[in-house]
Amino acid sequence: MRIFRLYQINKVLLQHGLDELIPDRWMPWYARVMRKCVFWIRNQYKHETAGERITLALQSLGPVFIKFGQMLSTRRDLLHPAIANELARLQDKVAPFPSEQAQVIIRQALGLSNLNELFSEFQVDPLASASIAQVHAAKLRSSGTDVVVKVLRPDIRKTIEADMDLLFTLAQVLQKWLPDGKRLRPVEVVTEYQKTLVDELDLMRESANGIQLRRNFEDSDALYIPKIYSELCRHNVLVMERIYGIPVSNVDALLAQNTNMKMLAERGVEVFFTQVFRDSFFHADMHPGNIFVSTETPSEPKYIAIDFGIVGTLNKEDKRYLAENFVAFFNRDYRKVAQLHADSGWVPPDTNIDEFEMAIRTVCEPIFQKPLAEISFGNVLLQLFNTARRFNMVVQPQLVLLQKTLLYIEGLGRQLYPQLDLWKTAKPFLENWMQEQIGVKAMLKKVKANLPYWSEKMPDMPDLLHDSLVQLKALPVQQQREHQHLIQMQIHATRAAHYGIVGATFIIVAAILPVYDLHWAFVALSAGTGVGCWLQSWRKGHRELQ
After folding, report:
1. Are 391 and 483 found together in one domain?
2. Are residues 421 and 377 in the same domain?
3. Domain boundary at 91, 106, 123, which?
4. Is 285 a catalytic residue?
5. In the predicted model, what is the mean pLDDT of residues 418-430?
6. How far apart are CA 206 and CA 283, in angstroms?
7. What are the distances in angstroms from CA 124 to CA 101, 237, 385?
8. Are residue 508 and residue 411 in the same domain, yes or no?
9. Which end of the chain is more exposed for a tag (fewer CB within 10 A), N or C?
10. How many CA atoms lie within 13 A of 332 on its CB side?
């Protein structure tokens, strides 16, 4: 199965002529020879542009590859604009599956004999179609509310499982044979990625995520989350309020309505850090196809988010560690950044902190307090990889989703408002958050949160204190008894070993005596003595166990 899927992937790449996009200097001679040997697989898309061929190939390969293309489409600083524009089609313009099939799935999931029972209107042509599902517009018959109905692609799970199986195999090979395999932890990274994809296949989970995000941002001026109709949601169908806004990637339309682009970019950073550090629950699939901008107040723009299949969470330790790193970086305290990495175990304990500090300064100082337009992300990424390899920095799989989301946010910031100073925008938010975590307010907040538990346990405290003191008083006597018992056990073990050795000696002698033609009584006496010693050894050992 894995070999067949690998062949299928290779076939698609060759049919779309993607091997022709690789510079000759990057392809070893044996790779070029192998390509010529596969003479029956030719480029069938010679007249399409490079961007169109890449997009079509990723679309043919399925959801795992489409997700990769979606992420690439936000990195216009790394790709040619024509390629980035074509890849952007993967965000919501993937080829749809038949509408008749979608209607059957909806009827079966909701127990309807006809869609007219629930919807007064239902648009046959999908509004959008992505890697996992497609969306149809509709109107609820009961209230006349405009909604969208999201339907999972049929048999999508089988395709994803096949690709994940192949990814696991490749990850195992890389982890075993690459020099950096253990540090990069590819198997753990693929495991985390698989969790997110499996979660995305359950629309009941997505509805719960959407409800949680809506509650977190209920009164927010920066982000709106549409209403989820949970009573109409199933594992393969989701019904949600229909939103009307401008896709965040449509910069021309945003400018045409005089949107405050600076505020829009700053609010994007605010929304991201609020989700991560205030809520520890963040939308982890924030590519442009899932983000819109409200048309109501262009001077104070508000984001609208959809598609909550992939969300991320952080535990308290990771959240605090990241916040301290960010604040130290914003303050240019590279020594603290280096020390935090060492304390958290991300680098080996024997790392030279002075050298590590200098390496971090080399990467960070050139980009500090610069607008996004003046930062070469590709160069920064290369330096970060080199630094990580040099100091054996271990990859943290639990942060992969966060890192991917940060890439989305940074890519959107470049597109919306290249003059944005990301560091200056985020620093006040993180400093306030840190003060709330370690200041007097934080202490009072924790006391208030624990007060019900303490008040419940308070009446038991005198008895618990008395019992502890009694046990403490009896501890020396108990330790002395245990010490004496241990000495007795050692004595019994030693005696058992002695008897065992003596018994073995007499048995060996009993086996040798017949050679000297002695009376059988001597043999019997020696054997009997040996067996008796063994029995005594067993008794001593049994007593030791008791």
Report:
1. no
2. yes
3. 91
4. yes
5. 77
6. 11
7. 11, 16, 48
8. no
9. C
10. 7
Strands 245-247 and 291-294: antiparallel
Structural domain including 381 reads 250-438
Quick one: CA torsion of 215, 216, 219, 222, rounded to 10 degrees? -130
Structure tokens at 382: 């290369």
Could you report the per-residue pLDDT of 7-16, keeping only the tens digit for each? 677 777 777 7
Domain total of the chain: 3
The strand pairing partners of 312, in sequence order, are 282
What is the identity of the amino acid at 320?
Answer: R
How far is the C-alpha of 71 from the C-alpha of 64, rounded, in Å? 11
Which residue numbers belong to the known binding site? 127-135, 150
Same domain flag for 423 and 307? yes
pTM summary value: 0.69
Give domain status of residue 281, yes or no: yes
Q: Is residue 424 part of a domain?
A: yes
User: Half-sphere exposure of residue 211, counting CA atoms within 13 Å on the CB side?
Assistant: 13
pLDDT tens column, 353-405 = 888 888 888 877 777 767 766 766 556 655 666 677 677 776 666 667 777 77
pLDDT attached to residue 395: 63
Are residue 403 and residue 274 in the same domain, yes or no?
A: yes
Of the residues 61, 91, 121, the one at which a domain ends: 91
Q: Which one from 285, 333, 354, 460 is the annotated catalytic residue?
A: 285
The three-state secondary structure class of 122 is strand
Length of the chain: 546
Binding residues for ATP are 127-135, 150
